Amino acid sequence: MLPYQLRSVDQELDELLGGLPAISLEGPKGVGKTATAQRRAATVFAMDDATQRELLTADPQRLDRAPAPVLVDEWQREPAVWD
Q1: What share of the chain is helix, strand, coil (3-state, %, to 5)?
Q2: CA atoms within 13 A on the CB side of 56
Q3: Residues 20, 68, 66, 75, Cα dihedral to 10°
Q4: Integer CA distances (angstroms), 59 to 3, 21, 30, 54, in order
Q5: How far apart are CA 55 and CA 22, in angstroms?
Q6: Sequence spans of domains, the chain
Q7: Which one in 8, 18, 44, 56 has a CA-CA gap of 20 to 30 Å to 70?
Q8: Strand partners of residue 45
Q9: Which one, of 24, 29, 20, lies nearest residue 9 by Cα?
């Protein structure tokens, strides 16, 4: 795996994380959204992993109990996790 490439959004994300309850990273596939978010997350829920998706949908309070910041990667596969 290639080493992490710093992105122009990195510094801005670091500044915003302390003051916002949630941040959504959007952009084309393969530009590093997940890698950027993972560097900041204490907890990662990967919704493209069937087991993790099932665990989170069975117990949505996992999000509340998880150490913050929490990354819900590929959340569009289970939009109910945002409710």
Answers
A1: 40, 10, 50
A2: 27
A3: 60
A4: 35, 20, 30, 9
A5: 21
A6: 9-23+31-82
A7: 8
A8: 72
A9: 24
- Give the residue from 27, 29, 46, 38 showing the smallest Cα distance to 4: 38
Rounded CA separation 71/44 (Å):
5
pLDDT in tens, 19-51: 998 999 999 999 999 999 999 999 999 999 999
In the structure encoding, which two tokens stand for residue 68, read together?
A: 């913050």
User: Max Cα separation, the chain?
Assistant: 37
Amino acid at 6: L
Token representation of residue 55? 């665990």
